[in-house]
């Protein structure tokens, strides 16, 4: 009985912590803010975790969901699965997703993506000096831009989103049909 009474506070703490941890998860929205006037997306060259270089200009002709994120960012982690789902759904239709990680190394990103239920298959690029995020005027993470086939930024979202929500998918389909 003495062992059980000593165990009860620990079990109570673990239960309360688990419930509160789930309760405190950031909610994800689904709205994207249209830019009043589309602007040219800044071009950049970045490497992925395997040191392969990507030139953003090579994505011209595709609708691009460009997401700035970091492993320490809870809403970034929460929105990753929805980015993968929308990528899988539309990738063959002139659409792609690019994740631009902020100031973290490839080993940390590899470990993080490996811990997710579904490992992302879209391109993840490293902005180790945060120069690309500065060019895109990123002020908080996650920040996402939806770029049309002509390379113009058309929509922006600051904070976590469910990118496979039907409202977001309508926007993506609309841009793909232009």
Structure description:
With 178 residues, the chain is α+β, with helices and mostly antiparallel strands. The model is unreliable at 4-23 (pLDDT under 50). The chain starts with a helix and ends with a helix. The chain is built from five helices and eight strands, in the order αββββαβαβαββα. The chain has helices at residues 2-23, 74-90, 106-115, 131-135, 166-177; strands at 33-40, 45-48, 53-55, 63-69, 95-102, 123-127, 143-147, 152-158.
Unreliably modeled segments: 4-23
Q: What is the general shape?
A: globular
Regarding CATH, which class? Alpha Beta
**Element-by-element helix/strand order:** HEEEEHEHEHEEH
Number of strands: 8
Q: How many separate structural domains?
A: 1
Q: What is the number of helical segments per DSSP (H or I, 4+ residues)?
A: 5
Distance between the termini: 71 Å
Q: What's the overall average pLDDT, rounded?
A: 89
Radius of gyration: 19 Å
Strand content: 25-35%
């Amino acid at each position: 009985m003495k062992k059980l009474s000593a165990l009860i506070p620990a079990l109570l703490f673990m239960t309360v912590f688990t419930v509160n941890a789930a309760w405190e998860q950031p909610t994800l929205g689904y709205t994207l803010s249209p830019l009043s006037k589309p602007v040219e997306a800044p071009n950049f060259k970045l490497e992925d975790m395997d040191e392969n270089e990507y030139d953003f200009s090579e994505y011209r002709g595709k609708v691009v969901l460009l997401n700035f994120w970091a492993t320490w960012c809870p809403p970034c982690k929460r929105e990753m699965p929805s980015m993968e789902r929308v990528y899988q759904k539309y990738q063959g239709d002139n659409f792609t997703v690019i994740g631009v990680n902020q100031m973290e190394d490839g080993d940390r990103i590899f470990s993080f993506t490996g811990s997710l239920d579904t490992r992302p298959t879209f391109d993840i690029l490293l902005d180790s000096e945060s120069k690309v995020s500065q060019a895109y005027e990123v002020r908080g993470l996650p920040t996402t831009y939806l770029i049309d086939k002509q390379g113009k930024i058309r929509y922006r979202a600051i904070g976590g989103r469910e990118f496979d929500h039907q409202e977001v998918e309508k926007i993506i389909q609309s841009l793909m049909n232009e």
